[in-house]
UniProtKB/TrEMBL annotation:
Catalytic activity: GTP + H2O = 7,8-dihydroneopterin 3'-triphosphate + formate + H(+)
Pfam families listed in its UniProt record: GTP_cyclohydroI
GTP cyclohydrolase I domain span: 79-254
E.C. code: 3.5.4.16
SUPFAM superfamilies referenced in this protein's UniProt entry, alphabetically: Tetrahydrobiopterin biosynthesis enzymes-like
Subcellular location per the Swiss-Prot or TrEMBL entry: Cytoplasm; Nucleus
Species of provenance: Oreochromis niloticus
One GO location term (cellular component): nucleus
Record protein name field: GTP cyclohydrolase 1
Pathway(s) this gene product operates in, as recorded in its UniProt entry: Cofactor biosynthesis; 7,8-dihydroneopterin triphosphate biosynthesis; 7,8-dihydroneopterin triphosphate from GTP: step 1/1
Keyword field: Allosteric enzyme, Cytoplasm, GTP-binding, Hydrolase, Metal-binding, Nucleotide-binding, Nucleus, Tetrahydrobiopterin biosynthesis, Zinc
GO aspect biological process, one term: tetrahydrobiopterin biosynthetic process
Length: 256
């Protein structure tokens, strides 16, 4: 049962149908949910006693895009934008558009720079042994992403909380995790879960909660054109999912 619905947040947790799961954080999310011995009961993926070796930590070896890749692909990206301009009925040779394909290509590479970064590089020197087991929350983290369905912006705020299990993460690194995953082509549901899973795999905390509130320009500028609409997604793992009091405390604190 998705208990986060009780808090009027739409959870992005998906049912695992046993067919291998969907790709998440560069690996199959089913590997996060199942130990080597086979399927587990719901919620077992976040058990605090689970060893690091029980998790497929492929966030350390995510496929990345290098700066050399950017240089090599820039001409073809610019050519593609030239084709788009022509397809829209514009003249790419007029003064105002002469450099637009190159500007747009470099801008898109920046918008998706998360493909160039690895979580392990960000977290490697920022995980500290600390005898602290109270909730840690960083809220109102600005987030900018690109909708993979329409290639238009998604922007909003991310709230993260976790219960340490003898290890804590430098606070700024939570924002860096958000930056890495948001600077890729995304859907908000997947982005929410990727952030939560990355923190879980890195720290093995007793619980993680992530809530994202965002505006989708594909809803504002086209389609239903609802200017004030917001999408709220949540992922709750470990105690945040299993303990209503812990979850309620987190949700109350991020709204205060």
């Amino acid at each position: 049962m998705d208990r986060s619905k009780q808090n009027k947040y739409s959870s992005n947790e998906k049912n695992d149908n046993g067919d291998g799961g969907s790709v998440l954080n560069g690996h199959f999310d089913g590997m996060v949910k199942r130990a080597a011995g086979g399927p587990q009961a719901p919620g077992a993926e976040s058990a605090p006693h689970r060893s690091t070796s029980a998790v497929m930590e492929s966030w350390k070896e995510e496929r990345t895009r290098s700066l050399e890749d950017n240089e090599m692909s820039l001409p073809s990206l610019a050519a593609a934008y030239t084709t788009i301009l022509r397809g829209l009925g514009e003249n790419p040779q007029r003064q105002g558009l002469l450099k637009t394909p190159w500007r747009a290509a470099t801008a898109m590479q920046f918008f998706t720079k998360g493909y160039q970064e690895k979580i392990i590089d960000v977290l490697n020197d920022a995980i500290f042994d600390e005898d602290h087991d109270e909730m840690v929350i960083v809220k109102d983290i600005d987030m900018f992403s690109m909708c993979e369905h329409h290639l238009v912006p998604i922007f909003g705020r991310v709230h993260i909380g976790y219960l340490p299990n003898k290890r804590v993460l430098g606070l700024s690194k939570l924002a860096r995790i958000v930056e890495i995953y948001s600077r890729r082509l995304q859907v908000q549901e997947r982005l929410t879960k990727q952030i939560a899973v990355a923190i879980t795999e890195a720290l093995q905390p007793t619980g993680v909660g992530v809530v994202i509130e965002a505006t989708h320009m594909c809803m504002v500028m086209r389609g239903v054109q609802k200017m004030n609409s917001k999408t709220v997604t949540s992922t709750m793992l470990g105690n945040f999912r299993e303990d209503p009091k812990t979850r309620d405390e987190f949700l109350r604190l991020i709204k205060s």
